[in-house]
Amino acid sequence: MSESIGQMKFCFRDSASFGGLTERWHMKKIGLIGGMSWESSQIYYQLVNQKVKEALGGFHSARCVMDSVDFAEIERLQMVDDWEAMSTLMAASAQNLEKAGADIVVLCTNTMHLCSDAIKASINIPFLHIAEATARRIKAQGLKKVLLLGTRFTMEKAFFKDILSKDFGIEVIIPNKADRSLVHDVIYEELVLGKISDTSRKVYQEIIAAGAEAGAEGAILGCTEIPLLIQQEHVQIPVFETTRIHAEAAVGFALA
Predict the structure, then answer these.
(1) pTM score, whole prediction
(2) CB-hemisphere CA count at 13 Å for 201?
(3) According to the model, what pLDDT value does residue 12 have?
(4) 223 belongs to the catalytic site
(5) What is the DSSP string of 213-243?
(6) Is the predicted pLDDT of residue 182 greater than 80, yes or no?
(7) What's the angle, vertex CA 159, arms to CA 104 and CA 147, rounded to 5?
(8) In angstroms, rounded to a whole number, what is the distance separating the alpha carbons of residues 69 and 93?
(9) From 64, 108, 109, 154, active-site residue
(10) Is 115 a catalytic residue?
(11) DSSP H or E stretch at residue 90
(12) Are 70 and 38 in contact (CB under 8 A)?
């Protein structure tokens, strides 16, 4: 069964190297599990195609396939904490991608990486874990302590934090309980519905500033919707957009 991508090094070759596909090289197909939410999934699709075009030039675009789920069903299961049912759904989606010829599976959401073990056990192609990709980027910048923002599940459960701390030696802090509720509620009540509020942006800015005061050298935007609200220009410390980092790592694999 598959393993997540560990320390594999990716590189983009110059456009001239890939003027045309040859017998010695072909672009690998990226499999995307989407729909959680569809607004963030379209960002993944946009990013992987932009990065392929930047790397190869010309008319190139990404070889990819998406299996998109109904987020209403996922949200209902999250609210009753039925991760076994969600793992079954995620594994089935990953298997659909493998059958469709994908060479790697990318789960287009942070929270649902709680189902990573079930996904990896169900397929025979690599699974690219969003926390591993993010940790490598943080490590490359030499940061040792970061603030993690995301859904309540991402901030409070261990699946994301443990990879950074145990596998990469990066200390992770999270907002206090009241601020965690604010971060979570903005995601589910606004961002996944496509609502962008200046008031909510200010709340996030204040929470990130508090994290910086507590020693965070950077902030992980650990939900695929958060970059719809917060970009680097809005805060003083470096931000790590897990969506962008994840998509770029997927393209790195596809072009390796």
Answers:
(1) 0.86
(2) 13
(3) 42
(4) yes
(5) HTT-SEEEE-STTGGGT--GGG-SS-EEEHH
(6) yes
(7) 105
(8) 8
(9) 109
(10) no
(11) helix 83-99
(12) no
Count of Cβ atoms closer than 10 Å to residue 90 Cβ: 27
In which region does residue 66 sit, left (phi positive, over 0), alpha (psi from -120 to 50) or beta (all else)?
A: beta
* Mean pLDDT, range 15-39, rounded to an integer: 72
- Give the type of residue at 69: V
DSSP assignment letter at 36: T
- In the sheet where 30-34 sits, what is the strand order? 64-68, 30-34, 104-107, 127-128
Sequence-distant (≥ 6) Cβ neighbours of residue 256 within 8 angstroms: 8, 10, 11, 28
Residue 247, judged by CB atoms within 10 A of its CB (0-12, 13-18, 19+), counts as buried
Q: What's CA 83's distance to the chain center, in Å? A: 19
Taking all residues of the chain, what is their mean pLDDT, rounded to a whole number? 91
More confident residue, 197 or 17: 197
Provide the CB-side half-sphere exposure for 180 (13 A, CA): 14
Q: What is the DSSP string of 169-208?
A: --EEE---HHHHHHHHHHHHHTGGGT---HHHHHHHHHHH
Catalytic: which of 223, 224, 242, 243?
Answer: 223
Nearest-5° Cα angle at 184, 37 to 107: 35
Q: Tally the residues of the chain.
A: 256
Chain centroid to CA 134: 8
Residue tagged 């980027």 (tokens): 137
pLDDT at 194 over 90: no
Dihedral angle of Cα 146, 255, 128, 154, to the nearest 10 degrees: 40
| 3-state secondary structure (DSSP) of residue 38 | helix
Structure token digits, residue 177: 């309980």
Q: What digits encode the pLDDT tens for the residues 94-106?
A: 999 999 999 999 9
Tell me the C-alpha to C-alpha distance, in Å, between residue 130 and each of 30, 190, 233. 14, 23, 23
User: Which SS3 state, helix, strand or coil, does residue 247 take?
Assistant: helix
